[in-house]
Write a structure and sequence with these properties.
This protein is mainly alpha-helical. The protein is built from 26 helices and no strands.
């Protein structure tokens, strides 16, 4: 896990530029003790999120130690309740975002303690947590800038200590990049065929790319202000390409630059609004696609850390508008704390109540893939990915689970509809054709399956599965010679692909080339000793060759494997 990229094993001979070993180690520990039990993963996400919110409150108390608990309490409460976090907490994969921010908060807390006390122990442990933050997700790199910025805004200036902290952070960052280059630099890379990176991949004009990126930034801000509707996917082509002639893009560029200029101008004043803006812009910079394409156009998960900047701004705005007294540092009871700020808490509780209603209503759709996809496809109806995922849920989950033939056919037809919608939006992804081909296989339309697999092969000629499935389809319509050609192509890509040997064995058996059939089926049975079908057919081949001893051995073996039901 420490020696490979995040998606090792998910794609054949493909790596992604993502080095995140800590989430993988967390998943491995969870699997070791609770295998195949997703509820444990969800529980851990909720637990880690709760821990993050608690530590965030402690950090804000530390930063605002000269004032009352009003700002830390209100800000942490708004952050904990904000519905934008449902994506990260409900999705098991979201643990990388959660632990990245969790380790970042731990690092900041200890760096602040070092800044206040000069304890080298706090500096070292704080540096270690920063390293864990980097190993959790690339977003952690922004804290190389944010940690010194936090110290500048919330503490009296001490150049010597800031310099020491910067040197420590720089050394750790350099170490991280050396490890990352060593790990990812030795692995084979190739383009991943999905919809996530198409939005910016297909925009070749630099200015149009930037206009689209800034437009997405404005959508992020609007989602923070009014988190509805929420969706798990915003990939191609849900967000239309923007140009410098489009009014929404121009407004977005103006607004973002205005925010940035205001923040820079007010840095010297140590304005809390300036800090909130800078925290948002810096933390979202690495996922904004403004500086580089990250492979995803937009995602609510990317707001998990930047949303703190928004919560700080809203807290400041509420306190300022309601004119609450922050100088009350000590409160004897909780009742005095609340009653002394009743107008503020009335507004905050209304806001938190609305956030909570949205969080609960949104979370129910994360029950399973089908629930999430059938809901979100109505929101992200122009997204190829959403339609594709719903098609897969229908094909690989609902169809196999259905026992009624009419219901199975209904799910299969719905899947075909979703895959066709996917291709209408963008037709350049091979797995869509392959999934659609399987739908037609289940309908018995093997000629259509073969044509669709031809399209899949056109876009991804190195995929061994496409040739193997095509070989099987040719066998179903009695074209053994074509099945042999497709099977041989599969073996050129992967000489140890068991299904290719099986299909070739069937094909040669169909053409009465019994010796070749025996050779390929023997190889198939060695590669997968539990494949009863290959073993059964091998028994038939030996029977045709008049080798009754081996025929009986393999046929009896196949019968035992299939519970006495023969093939």
């Amino acid at each position: 896990m420490l020696k490979t990229d995040r998606l090792q094993g998910y794609f054949h001979k493909v790596i992604v530029p993502e080095y995140r070993p800590i989430p993988l180690i967390l998943f491995a520990i969870e699997w070791q003790f609770f295998p195949d039990n997703p509820s444990v993963y969800h529980f851990m996400n909720v637990l880690l999120y709760a821990l993050t919110c608690w530590l965030l409150f402690l950090l804000l108390c530390k930063l605002f130690d000269k004032k009352s608990l009003l700002f830390p309490f209100t800000c942490a409460l708004l952050y904990a309740a904000h519905p934008i976090h449902t994506d990260v907490v409900n999705s098991i994969k979201g643990s990388d975002e959660i632990i990245c921010f969790l380790f970042a908060i731990c690092s900041i807390l200890l760096m602040v303690k070092y800044y206040d006390s000069g304890s080298i122990r706090d500096l070292i442990i704080g540096g270690f947590f920063f390293f864990l933050c980097l190993l959790s997700k690339e977003n952690g790199l922004t804290f190389f800038i944010l940690i010194p910025l936090i110290l500048y805004f919330f503490r009296a200036l001490n150049f010597k200590k800031i310099k020491t902290i910067v040197i420590v952070l720089a050394s750790i960052t350099l170490t991280y990049f050396i490890i990352r280059i060593q790990v990812l630099g030795n692995l084979e890379t190739r383009e991943i065929y999905d919809f996530n990176n198409r939005t910016f991949f297909l925009i070749h004009d630099f200015f149009n790319r930037e206009a689209t990126a800034f437009y997405i930034l404005s959508k992020y801000i609007l989602l923070l202000i009014f988190p509805h509707p929420l969706c798990f996917d915003y990939s191609f082509n849900q967000i239309p390409m923007q140009t410098l002639k489009d009014i929404p893009a121009l407004i977005s560029i103006f607004a973002i630059f205005a925010m940035g200029i205001f923040a820079v101008i007010n840095i010297q004043k140590k304005s809390l609004v300036a800090f909130a803006i800078l925290f948002f812009l810096i933390s979202i910079s690495v996922v904004s696609n403004v500086f580089m394409s990250i492979g995803a156009a937009m995602g609510e998960r990317f707001l998990y850390i930047p949303s703190l900047g928004y919560c700080m701004f809203i807290t400041w705005l509420l306190i300022r508008v309601i004119k609450t007294n922050e100088s009350m540092k000590n409160h004897l009871t909780l009742n005095q704390f609340i009653s002394g700020n009743q107008y503020l808490f009335s507004v905050v509780l209304i806001l938190v109540g609305l956030y909570s209603i949205k969080t609960f209503s949104r979370s129910k759709y994360w029950k399973d893939n089908y629930s999430l996809l059938t809901h979100d496809v109505t929101i992200s109806d122009k997204s190829a990915q959403t339609h594709y995922c719903l098609g897969n849920a229908l094909l690989y989950e609902k169809y196999p689970a259905a026992t009624d033939t009419a219901l199975k056919n209904s799910y299969n037809n719905e899947a075909i509809s979703e895959f066709n919608k996917t291709l209408d939006i963008f037709g350049g992804f091979p797995d869509v054709y392959a999934s659609l081909a399987l739908c037609y296989e289940q309908k018995g339309a093997f000629q259509d399956e073969i044509k669709l697999l031809d399209s899949a092969i056109k876009y991804y000629p190195e995929n061994v599965n496409y040739y193997t499935k095509q070989s099987f389809a040719f066998l179903q319509i009695g074209k053994a010679e074509e099945a042999i050609i497709a099977g041989e192509k599969a073996l050129k890509i992967n000489p140890d692909f068991q299904k290719a040997y099986t299909n070739l064995g069937y094909a040669y058996y169909a053409t009465f080339d019994l010796e070749k059939a025996k050779t390929y089926l023997t190889k198939a049975s060695h590669l997968d000793p539990n494949d009863a079908s290959s073993i059964y057919t091998l028994g038939l081949v030996y029977s045709a060759l008049k080798d009754t001893t081996n025929a009986r051995i393999y046929l009896e073996k196949a019968s035992k494997m299939s519970g006495g039901q023969g093939r």
